[in-house]
Amino acid sequence: MGDSYIYKNQKKLRWGYTTGTCAAAASLAAAVMLLGRNRTEQVSVETPKGIRLDLEVEDISMGQRAVSCGVRKDAGDDPDVTDGLVVYSRVSFGREEDGPDDVGKHAGGYYEHKNNDICLKLTGGVGVGRVTKEGLSCEVGKSAINPVPRQMIFRQVEDICARYRYRGVLWIEISVPGALEVSGRTFNSKLGILGGISILGTSGMVEPMSETALLETIRLELRQNVLAGHCRLVVTPGNYGEAFLRDHLKIGLEQAVKCSNFIGNTIDMAVEEGAGGILLVGHGGKLIKLAAGIMNTHSSAADGRMEVLAAYGAACGADSCLVNRILEAITVDEGLRLLETREGLRDQVMERVMERIEGHLKGRAAGRLEIEAVVFTNERGILGATSGAAVMLERIADNL
Q: Which of 248, 263, 66, 283 is nearest to 175 (CA)?
């Protein structure tokens, strides 16, 4: 298959393929070479998305009882930290009674697939993380190899077993040397995946600049907090919010769920995961947009910050000259500074803005969870809070 592309924000972007696809392709190649004894330097795999890929096989090591080889991850035009890493599969003969330690695997448990006289056992090696928290799609204590990649790996190897009429046990070990070094740039440690990366993929393909993976990460954080017994959750869009929680509200970062720009989606997912309440804490540059009902705060989706400040400034008595200066402002802090040129005007505006934010947030939650908000800037501290924010903060602090 040639390269596939997608257009986003008027840019032509190239698709890539997942670590799960790499693991399945490497496992296919290793199984072919172990059972067929023919060196194989390219394999063809069909992804769950229905796209067939011809992938190069690297670093082949063939022995009598085991074969190891790798397939290099290509994330296309997506800024994926795993891009360029080689995903290895080592396929070896085993016995029914073997466990991970018996064949040199780490002690992180294994996944098993049986069909007639074929038994496949799958585990993770160097660079594949171990699951330590509930709420993920992998069992605690096992390697972080997600369900769809597991199915892809088992299907590829089982097909090769059938081709060569092999009956017995095969061990499959997936490893990603170098992954531990990049895992710190992922959400893995916060999700409870330690010692490496996850082997991921539901479609087998990487859609460049996709929001899907980030939304799934937010959902997992919400789910894990609920499973840990946190009825009310602290949510913040990003790093500014995390720093403010730590330095001003004395809330540990491990308790905060980072929602990026997806405030509306996060509220929806919190309801679906059974949360009782959300305290949203964020910088005015993001959250002031909520007063206009904007639930995706990325600048490419919508802005409206200056329009909100200008409209409520006018409603609170600002003259047309000041309103026009606010509309021309670049940052929220600049707009607030202009409001501060009239005594008491900024506080009046923020009171009206917070009322509007509260209305939109509660409208999105539709009565299915409590929701409050605190808005701040780094220069000015807390600008405003919704009517029940102080009470919810106390309740959250009591449960930490």
A: 66
* Per-residue tokens: 322: 């000041």
Check if the beta carbon of residue 339 is closer than 8 Å to that of residue 323: no
Q: Specify the pLDDT at position 149.
A: 95
Pairing of strands 232-236, 256-258: parallel
The rounded distance, in Å, linking the Cα atoms of 24 and 91 is: 12
Distance CA 99, CA 39 (A): 28
Widest Cα–Cα separation across the chain: 85
- Under the phi-then-psi rule, with left for phi > 0, alpha for psi from -120 to 50, and beta for the rest, what region is 249? alpha
In whole angstroms, give the CA distance from residue 373 to residue 105.
Answer: 48
- Lowest mean pLDDT segment, chosen from 48-52, 261-265, 349-353: 48-52
Q: Are 51 and 205 in contact (CB under 8 A)?
A: yes
3-state secondary structure of 30: helix
Reported as a pLDDT band with limits 50, 70 and 90, residue 1 is very low
Q: Tell me, what amino acid is at 112? A: E
Q: Which residues lie below 8 Å from residue 24, measured CB to CB, with a gap of 6+?
A: 45, 149, 152, 153, 155, 156, 204
Residue 105: predicted pLDDT: 45
* Interval 276-298: pLDDT, tens: 999 999 999 999 999 999 999 98
Sheet holding 232-236, edge to edge: 256-258, 232-236, 277-283, 370-377, 381-385
Query: In 3D, which of 166, 169, 171, 153 has the Cα closest to residue 35?
Result: 166
Pairing mode, strands 193-194 and 127-128: unpaired
CB 218 within 8 A of CB 260: yes
Residue listed under structure tokens 């609920």: 226
Cα 94 to the center of its chain, rounded Å = 36
Q: Is 357 exposed, middle or buried (0-12, 13-18, 19+ CB in 10 A)?
A: buried
Q: How many residues does the chain have?
A: 400
Q: Tokens 């059938």 correspond to what residue?
A: 162
Q: Specify whether the CB–CB gap between 182 and 19 falls below 8 A.
A: no
Instruction: Please check the confidence at residue 125 and state whether its pLDDT lies above 90.
Output: yes
Under 8 Å between Cβ of 294 and 301:
yes
